[in-house]
Write a structure and sequence with these properties.
Blueprint: H1 18-29, E1 61-66, E2 80-85, E3 93-97, H2 100-116, E4 120-125, H3 135-139, H4 145-156, H5 167-178, H6 218-225, H7 242-257, E5 266-268, E6 284-289, H8 305-322, H9 327-330, H10 337-343, H11 352-356, E7 415-416, E8 421-422
Helix pairs in contact: 4-7
């Protein structure tokens, strides 16, 4: 599950830089959903959605999944949660999956059942569906860039029924192939993989360089410009490591996309279709990358934030769809060729043109600048009768706290310039 510094508003927010976009869209979408602050004590009654448009909705069913890269079966917080629903009059159905295998089996069942009924389904999982531009070429993937990477991962990633996978080994092998342009980092200390560093000992392409791989996709740069802090897809371990979810999740989406009972009606946004227009009564499956925290979820019923988030996403989707307001969410990457061919996009994040209209400062497409606070200036201690202590014998000018102390902590290890030896050497 992805982590974020805060939830973006489903109407592009009312706080921070999102508020400017919200003003333009609220007139068309009506009051933003999900401003309630009270918590439900039990499952809520089905809510009445907004006044429905005379235009037929884009979808008949909606499925959102909060993915996980756990190394063993797990339930509850930080595990896989899914939510499914039909129109706004039906209840939200949530489910907790202990393993990725069980989640995939459930998804196949849900999608095939819906397709046999002639339904159009929007299904989203919360990990990047693409990598920064250039990765497919560096990998030597054949065909369309996004499809080539997906096929490569499907051939090499092994993930068994108990959540035991070889994702770190696959990333290490990719790093070995790419040499100096190796992008992946992060692994458990007990894994001996010389080509996969435990920490961020990698170099990404800067805007002024022609070689190497960028750290960020364009959609992540837009989120950063809007004040959010997404994690890079190259990060495989530690808090917010969405990279492991991607390595383990993309093969699942590919198997769903190419399932014998689904492949003729399945498409992946924005690679294969931009704004969907599936005829009513004609079965269709549209896969889209999501980021659940883009929709406020604190008001939702749920045993943990993961369950609340998928409920909020599905509820928001179907309300917008019934009001003929969901289509604009698919239009964001319409003018971004790299997003449509290789990098992908997060459903609900506005286009770069919309963000540029806000007048926010431009940020480079290279590594994100580190936000560091300047160290606070320390007031020097001056000698005087009120101190009652002798200065440190190393000559640094500070005064040890203890009246009998001759050195600041650790300063007795310094080299005495007069003797060329440590002060504590006798």
């Amino acid at each position: 599950m992805r982590s974020s510094q805060g939830a973006l508003s489903c109407d592009l927010g009312s706080r921070g830089p999102w508020r400017h976009v919200a003003v333009a869209r609220r007139a068309a979408e009506g009051p933003p959903y999900g401003r309630a602050t009270t918590r439900h004590q039990g499952p809520p009654e089905p809510r009445v959605g907004p006044i429905e448009s005379a235009v037929a909705p884009l979808f008949d069913r909606y499925i959102a999944v909060d993915w996980s890269a756990n190394n063993e079966p797990k339930s509850g917080k930080d595990s896989i949660w899914s939510c499914s629903a039909r129109d706004t009059s039906s209840e939200l159905q949530t489910r907790n999956h202990r393993t990725r295998h069980s989640a995939e089996v459930w998804l196949v069942e849900q999608l095939t059942t819906a397709v046999h009924a002639g339904d159009r389904i929007l299904v989203g999982l919360d990990f990047p569906y693409g990598y920064p531009a250039g990765f497919a070429g560096a990998l030597g993937a054949d065909g369309e860039p996004w499809r080539g990477v997906w096929n490569y991962l499907a051939r090499h990633v092994v993930d068994d029924e108990d959540n035991v996978s070889n994702r770190f080994e696959v990333a290490s092998d990719v790093n070995r192939k790419l040499g100096r342009d190796a992008p992946f980092w992060g692994r458990p200390q007990n894994l001996a993989l010389p080509h996969l560093p435990t920490t961020k000992e990698v170099t990404y392409r800067s805007p002024h360089q022609c070689s190497g791989l960028p750290e960020w996709r364009r959609v992540e740069e837009q989120l950063y410009r809007l004040g959010e802090n997404p994690h890079a897809v190259w990060k495989l371990f530690y808090t917010g490591a969405v990279g492991s979810q991607t390595l383990l999740g993309i093969p699942v989406v590919l198997r769903l996309r190419d399932h014998p009972a689904l492949r003729t009606v399945s498409r992946v946004w924005p690679f294969e279709v931009l704004v969907p227009s599936f005829p009513v009564g004609s079965a269709a499956v549209l896969h889209a990358e999501i980021w659940p925290s883009i929709v406020p979820f604190a008001h939702e019923f749920g045993r943990c934030n993961d369950e609340k988030q998928v409920r909020a996403v599905v509820q928001r989707w179907r309300e917008l769809d019934r009001g003929d307001r969901l289509a604009p969410w698919f239009e964001a990457p319409s003018e971004d060729e790299l997003a449509r061919q290789e990098e992908g996009w997060i459903l609900g994040v506005p286009s770069s043109r919309t963000i540029e209209a806000l007048g926010l400062p431009e940020r480079s497409r290279g590594s994100r600048p580190t936000r560091r606070r300047a160290p606070a200036a320390r007031a020097p201690l001056s000698p005087g009768p009120s101190i009652g202590r002798a200065p440190c014998l190393c000559g640094c000018g500070d005064y040890p706290r203890g009246k009998r102390s001759r050195f600041m902590p650790g300063h007795d290890q310094r080299i005495n310039p007069a003797t060329g030896r440590r002060f504590n050497d006798h």
